[in-house]
Amino acid sequence: MIKQTFLYNNLDDLDLSMTFYSNQNDSSTKATLIYFHGGGLLYGTRDDLPETYCELLTKNGYNLLTVDYPLAPEVKLPTIVTCLKEAIDWFLKNYKTILGLENSNYFLFGRSAGGFLTYLLSARHRFEEQKGLISFYGYYDLTDPTFSQPSGYYNQFPKIAPLAAQGLIQSRPITEVSINERFSLYLSGRQFGNWLSYLVNTPSEKEDFSLTETELTELPPTFLAHSSADQDVPVEASRIASNKILNVTYEEVENLPHDFDGDITKSEGLQVYQALIAWLDKTLTST
Fold this sequence. Notes:
Oligomer: single chain
């Protein structure tokens, strides 16, 4: 597996980069997965997908392009979405000349908050080259009361007062910060029900960044995965979506944490990625 880094844009003086994972033995790949990481939009890094899965995808003919985006609350959702639109545009413009690809077929792939971004961009910045979307434990509706109410799960942990958490906010935009450095900001937001205030400029923007019923039915072929015991994003988010999206494959695992694929010692994660590859192959042959 080869890893290359490319710059796709700048935000002020902040570099926005991508990592391109490809198989060194094969130039005729089937499609590229453009990947958005999770972290509540407040923390994380583009290269958080376990290497086991990166190798599995590339060996089966699927490149990965993992994308930086500026984190909230240093910027808000409109800026994040604009940057990711630019990333997709960069891929479509440069797939051949810079990445050396024979085709521009792509899927959007996100985990958790990255799944949310995948839904949003599939509905509102879609091109014919996009063959489908993949959301692992993601969500599409910021008006869901779960996100604006104190979380029973997160309130089991010692309280982190909003003012203390806000001390972690930096004075200029950033694209990555580790969970250890900034989870407290997300934790506090979920404990006090104010997480969304870090993402949107006004309460009404929650609706602006939620998919409508019509948008759900118009999504491209979709692969969803979620754990029945998800303590962070309710499994209902994917269950409801799987009933409303017209062309959908849904894999539900039992009694594992939110990011069930993060522990590569668990067989369930690998099984879901193998199901994903089968779905990718089938989707490409039927389009």
